[in-house]
Amino acid sequence: MKFRPLLLAAAFVAAMPAMAEEVTVYSARIESLIKPLFDAYTKETGVQVKFVTDKEGPLMERIKAEGANTPADVLLTVDAGVLWQAEQMGLLKPVKSTVLEANVPAHLRDPKGSWYGLSVRARTMFYNTQKLKPAQLASYEDLADPKWKGKLCLRTSKKVYNQSLVATMIARLGEAKTEQIVRGWVANLATDPFSDDTMMLKAVAAGQCEVGIANTYYYGRLMEKEPTLPLAVFWPNQKTTGVHVNISGAGVTRHAKNEKGALKLIEWLSSDKAQNLYADVNMEYPVNTKVKPDAKVAAWGDFKHDYINVAKAGELQAAAVKLMDRAGYR
Amino acid sequence: MDIDIPHTAPLPPTPRRLPRRLDEHALAWLVAAVTLVPLGVVLASLWQPEGEVWRHMAEFVLPQLLINTAWLIAGVAVGTLGLGVSLAWVTAIYDFPGRKHFAWALALPLAMPAYVLAFVQIGLYDFTGPLQSLIRDVAGDSSWFPSIRSRGGVILTLTLVLYPYVYLLARNAFLTQGRRALEAAASLGLSRRQGFWRVALPMARPWLVGGVSLALMECLADFGTVATFNYDTFTTAIYKAWFGLFNLTAASQLASLLVMAVLALALLEQRARGDKRYTATGRGAAHRPERLSPWRGWLVAGACLLVLSLAFLVPMAQLLYWAWSVAAEQLDLRYMGFVGRSLVLSAGAAGVVVVLALVLAYSVRRKRDIASRLAARLATLGYAVPGTVLAVGVFIPLAWLDNHLITAAHALGWPGVSEVIKGTLLVMLLAYAARFLAVAFEPTQSAMQRITASQEEAAASMGLGRRAVLWRIHLPMLRGGLLTAALMVFVDVMKEMPITLMTRPFGWDTLAVRVFEMTSEGQWEMAALPSVAIVLAGLIPVILLAVQTEKHA
């Protein structure tokens, strides 16, 4: 066990920089999803990657409080809304990189270059195959139709994934129309919203309801464990806006000590070599279109995804939260 | 620190020494500062207007949340008192099959992280769980089954996790009450039951209030459990303001209101309690448990087993099952490190926090005035602040200080310094103190009430100085209370996430950090492994405490 010395003098010594080049990452993406990548990076380049994990909110406050002395070179996190907020708080430094511009599609990165998406997470619909035919399903908006009364399951509106989904709907349809849809969802609920996508999916499979909205990787994990569940993917809004997508992504911190190293790491994470490892460990989609998703993930089929810039989700998140409160979506 | 100060009774004037000895007031406020600094950061938010968020909250969010919170508080208060007191009473006063084992086992749910129990409960009893599935297989329909994801479900779950606070403190009260009070009651013609209601219970008041206030403060600060049930309470609004509306200021304001409400309640209770004394009558004459008739004994044993099963055995079995299923791929040598660090932090924090609580309780006892009581109340408020908000409150002043130290270090010619006090064990322990002082203070202060003024006076008249009185009179008599305090802090630190996450050094992952990692991606089965480890590590002090209590009862 590595024991951190108590004495300040010893702490001074411990804090002395190591000889090898080092990049420090603050990550809201958990250890098991990032460590394999960092290990591979170290093996390839010799650069050490030091990291600490926490929830995104505290991590951002941490960078802010540490100010110019922050050890963090990179902020790695989940959800575009969070990255947008980090940019708003002035925690990130806009960087230009031809590599990243080539690897990351324009709608999955900050227009100013403060952050870049590294994997795509699709929030789509799942239905009970014993109760529904895919032809009966159409779009997120359609789930507000009274014909779904008592047949819909949703996760709580307090989860950022739903906030992002509703935020992009506001961007497209305006507040009034979106609120009408969300009210329709609430009226159609079969049971109280769940706190977790997996619980929600299980309820659909058990017939407590017939259809629900969730991220694909939860479905992937659940089906791996219980392959016989009567549960299937449906890609909504294919004739209109496309499936709602969010990202996990990263940015260089404003006070990065090793700015170059930070950018190199992010570029590497977006490269062909790393993308499969990055996305596949969590059954997500690579952000780099030259890279194919994992076979298991590809088997769910191709789909058209929403090309609205994910930064919109951050911009309109507060509006979405308030709208869902008004509509009584808990 | 020197607490050997002159007695208030007229004594020959002692020559002034330098440095001047610390007064009890100064000591109490010094301890309180550990909490007051982070609390101050949270309260400072009150000066910044956030009208828009407030208007929205007041119109659409708060009305329902306040109702929900009131129900939760009332339900958990009744539940923890009912369970905690009755279990403490039967295990302290009566003898029945398995009493000795139940006496310690009933404290075990304390080691179970509340949000983990919440998840297990939903997994077991919700529509998709094994119980309702079985009902559907047999009877075709389970829609009549009461939903666990409901107000009742949350109250039940939090009661099951939090009753041990009341149980441990009440048991301490009943065991130290001495039997003479109850014998006197009996000689006056009171039955056992009347003796309980009219003597034992009123005499245990500080313990019961202490236990319940710990349970309720944890309830008010809880986010993980209510979030798992999607039951919106006041903390929901706090986190919604922060993470949903990106407004930490409004979140801190809401948290400040919570803290002030708790402070007001604490002061009210203190006023109502007045200057009543709760000293023991007939020290040393401990209870000889009264043997219950066989069928009554088995009935009581059955009731104890039911509580233990619901709160611990069944959820633990589920956790073990999950842990077993992932152990092959998850359990590796790194767990040695996780367990080791968790133990170091928990034991260290238990030591530090208990010492601080002792200083605080001692100051209150010596001074018996508003200033010292207020210091104690403020020092223990950290427990009512939602963990993540307090963690930020701890971190901001810490980073501020560190930034100045770094500047100084650079000026002194250490250019490579990037952290000075941040990421040291000492800072982590103080941060835990800010959160858990209440947990150690309640049992310590209650136990101190059993020491009579005449015992102290007798000791003083025999020429013992204050320090000697503290060492030779107070500490031996406080033993049970201090052990309870240490145990509860140990177990709480083991489960604590936000402060650990925010203040730990690079690579210093603990069991609680593992639980966070797994649950944040919804991988509850994998989270079972570190959860089981937390419970097992928590078992050690629970058993130690039980053995000690039995020995010294």
Q: In a nutshell, what does this entry contain?
A:
The complex is a heterodimer of chains A (330) and B (553). With 330 residues, chain A is α/β, with parallel strands linked by helices. Chain A has helices at 8-14, 31-45, 56-66, 80-88, 98-103, 160-173, 175-188, 197-206, 216-225, 259-269, 272-280, 295-298, 311-315, 317-326, and strands at 22-27, 48-53, 74-78, 116-128, 152-153, 211-215, 231-234, 244-252, 285-286.
Instruction: Detail the poorly predicted runs of chain A.
Output: 1-18
For the largest interface in this structure, which chains are involved and how many residues does each contribute? Answer: A-B, 65 and 72 residues
Q: Briefly, what CATH class of the largest domain in chain A? A: Alpha Beta
Instruction: Count up the domains of chain B.
Output: 1
CATH architecture name of the largest domain in chain A: 3-Layer(aba) Sandwich
The CATH superfamily of chain B turns out to be MetI-like
